[in-house]
Amino acid sequence: MRVFNEIAVVTTICIKSIPQRFWASFSTVVAVGLVVTVLLAFLAMAAGFQQTLRGTGTKDMAILMRAGSQAELNSGVTRDQARLIEEAPGVMKDADGKPLVSPELYVIVDGVKKTAVPADGNLKKAPRSNLTLRGLGPAGIAVRPGLKIVEGRAFKPGTNELMVGRALQKDFAGVDVGDTVKLGNSNWLVVGAFELGGSVFESELWADTPEVQDLFHRQNVFQSIRARLTGPDALKALSDYAANDPQLKLDVTTEADYYAQQASRTSDLIQKLGWPLAIAMAFGALAGALNTMYSSVAARAQEIATLRCIGFSGTSSFIGTLLESLVLALVGGFVGTLVTWVLFDGLTGSTLSGASFSQIVFTFHLTPAVALQGVILALVVGLVGGVFPAWRAARIPIVEAYGTP
Amino acid sequence: MSDLYLLWRNLFRRKLRTFLMMLAIFVAFVIYGVLGSIHYAFEHGVDSSADNRLVVVNKITFIQPLPYAYVGKIAAIKGVKNLTFANWFGGYYQDARNQIGTFAVDPESYLRIYRDDLRIDPAARDAFIHDRTSMVVGEAIATKYGWKVGDRIPINSNIFTNKTDGSHTWELTVAGIAYAAKESFNTSFIIFQYENFNESKTFGKDTVGWITLETDSAAVNDKVAATIDDLFANSTAETNTQSEKAFGKAFLAQLGNIALIITLVVGAAFATILMIVGNTMVMAVRERTKEIAVLKTLGFPSWRIWRQVLGESVLLSLLGGVPGLLVAGLLVTLLSKLASGAIPGLALTLPVAGLGVAFMLLLGVVTGFLPAWNALRLNIVTALGRL
C-alpha cells in the first residue's frame, strides 16, 4: 500500500509541476500530436477507400468477364454469351420468371473534379479525370435491390439520359440533376441521382445500353455480365456450367471477391506510405520527448533527492516520471486524433483506381480501430521517451543531486 | 580561444541533448529529402517533354480509339512536322500482375518523334523496322526480366485476342534495347509493330489509340491544335488536341493532389522540429545566462554574442540536416531501384538538396533568434544575480 501512496504523491508532484516546464512539455505534446495526425490521415484515407470498395460487392452477385481480362475495362462479352447465362443454373429469377441477368457496358468518359474548376468556371478548359460510364438494361436496376434514387428519376430507355452516383456529385462539377453533359458529340441530360450503399457504383454515370453502344460504336458487345445468385452453392454451379461450355470462356467470381481484390491493392499502398512516414516522424518526436523528460528530471533532481531522503523509494520516482511522460504523449495522441477527426474525417477524395482506370470517390473515415492505432503509437513514444529518464530519476545519487545548483 | 571553439564546446556541453536534437533534425530532413525527390521527379518528368509536341486523343476519353485515317489527315495539316501514333496493348508477362506498358507503334515514325528521349543502336533500329514480329524493350524492363537481343518472348494482352491461334499471346523477338537519353524518361515499356498488331487482333482493326505530333515550333501549337479539332468536329470521333506536357500533368493530377500531400507531410515534420529544437535552444541558452553575462562584462561586443548563439543553432541544424539529406539520397537511390524505373529520374537532385540546405539555415536562424535576442537584452547585473 505504501508504495502506491508514494507513487501517487510523486506522480502528483510531476504532473503539477508540468506548468513550470510549460514550453518543453507543450513541444512534446505538439510533436506527438503531429505524428499521430499524419499517421491517422493516411490510415483514414486507406480505411475510407477500402470501405467504399468492400461495400460494393455482395456475395450473392456473380460477375462474369472474358477469361484473363482481370478487370471490366479489358473484358468483352457477346450478347450470345449473355443469353447462355440467362439459362444457367444458380441464376435467380424474378417474380415473373425472368432471369436476373444484366449484361453491362463499361466505358470510360471524363469529367472535371470540383477542385480543378478554373476561376472563370469554364469547364471546357479544365483538366479532366476519367469516369466510368456504365450502360445498363432494365435488368441492371432489378439486379441491384439496394439501389435508391435520391433525386429525380431513372433514365428512360432509348434516350440520352444519365443517372449519376451520389459520391460522384460530391467530387465532380457539372453533374447535378438538370445539368447537360457533353459526351463525344452528343448531349446527355442528368435526370437522377442514386445511392447504392456507399459503393463504387456511386462514382459512376449510368445510361441506357443501346445509347452508350451507339456513342462508342460497340454494337452487341458488353464488358461484363452481372447475375444474381440463388444461394451459397450457386456460384459453383454457374462456374461449372461456364467451364463446360466452349462458347463461355469466362471468369466467374462473386462481386464481393472482385472488388475486395481491387481494394486491397490501393489501400495497401496508402498504408505502406503512411506507416513508414509516421514511424520516421515518431523518432523525431521521441527525441523531443526524451529531451523534455530528461530536463524534467534534472529540474526536479533536488525534489527527488529530498523525497528519497525522507524514505521514498526509487520505484516511486521511476513510475512517477514514466507516468508524466505517458500523460504528455497521451494528450498529444488525443490532440492528434481530434485534429484528424476535425480536418479529415468525412472529407471526400478521389483517386484513379488501377484496375478500373477511372476515378473512385471515397470518404476519409476515422474508424475507432484507426484511432486506436494512433493512440498506441503515441503511447509507445511516451513509454520509450519516459523510461530512460525515469531510470535516471530512480538512481540519482542524493549527494550529487544537492551538489548541482 | 577562438569563437568557433567556444561555439563547438557550447553545443556539446550536454552531449545527449545535442544528440537528440540532431536526431530530430536528421529525421525531418530524411523525410524532406525523400518526399522532395519524389515530387521533383514527378513534376520534372512531365516538364521535360518537348515544347512543340502535341497529343491527339478521342474527345470522349483518351482510352477510346481514333480511326487510322486520321493519321494521314493530320499529317497533311500545315505546321505539323512529324507525327506518329500508338495503341495501348494491355500487355503483361507470364502473370497478369506483371503489367508492362506495351504499345503497338509504327517503328520508324515513333523512334523519330522520340529521337531526343531514347537512345537505340542503329542496327537494332533497322532490325525493329524490318522484322514484323520484333519488339524494342526499354532498359528497365530488359533489366527486370533479363531479356537479351534475339530472345523470343511471349507477351500477353489482357484486352486483345490473337487471331492466329485464338490465344491472348503474341510471340515477339527482342530486336534491341532502348535506353533513356534523358534521365527523366521512363524506360519501363515495350514497343512492337503496329502492322503485326493490326492484322492479328480480332477487333478494333484500323484504329489507333492516340497520335503524337511535332509542330514546326511551339508558337504554332495552339493554331495546329485548333485546326485538328475543327477538322474532326461533328464527326463520329471528335478529337481533343493538347500539348504532351498538359496531357501528362492532367494524368498525374488524376492520382490525387500529390504536391499537397507531400507539402503537408513535410510541413508537419518541420513544424515538429521547429517546436522541439526552438524550445531546447531557448532552454540551453538560458542555462548559460551567467556565462553570457561574464562574457559581456569582459567586453565582448553584442554582435559576437549574437553570432555565438545563432552560429550554434545553425551548426546544430547543419549537423543534423546534412547527414539527413545524405541518407535521403541513399534511400531515394534504393527506392528508384526497387521501383525499377516506374518513377523515372528519381534521385536527390541539386535543386532539392539546395533547397534543403536553405531550410537548414532558415531553421538554424529561426530557432536561434529568440535565445540570441534574450542574450542580447541581458542586463549584466540581474543576470549575475540570477540563480
UniProtKB/TrEMBL annotation, chain A:
GO terms for molecular function: transmembrane transporter activity. Residues 278-398 form the ABC3 transporter permease C-terminal domain. Residues 25-240 form the MacB-like periplasmic core domain. It is found in: Cell membrane. Its main location: membrane. Coiled coil: none annotated. One of its GO terms (cellular component) is plasma membrane. The chain crosses the membrane at residues 22-49, 273-297, 318-344, 364-388. InterPro entries: ABC3_permease_C (IPR003838), MacB_PCD (IPR025857), Macrolide_Exporter_MacB (IPR050250). It is a multi-pass membrane protein. Keywords: Cell membrane, Membrane, Transmembrane, Transmembrane helix. This is Peptide ABC transporter permease. The lineage of its organism: Bacteria, Pseudomonadati, Pseudomonadota, Alphaproteobacteria, Rhodospirillales.
From TrEMBL, chain B:
The chain crosses the membrane at residues 20-42, 258-278, 314-336, 348-370. The keyword Transferase does not apply. Residues 266-380 form the ABC3 transporter permease C-terminal domain. Its main location: membrane. It comes from the Bacteria. Keywords: Cell membrane, Membrane, Transmembrane, Transmembrane helix. It is found in: Cell membrane. It is a multi-pass membrane protein. Residues 18-230 form the MacB-like periplasmic core domain. GO terms for cellular component: plasma membrane. This is ABC transporter permease. The lineage of its organism: Bacteria, Pseudomonadati, Pseudomonadota, Alphaproteobacteria, Rhodospirillales.
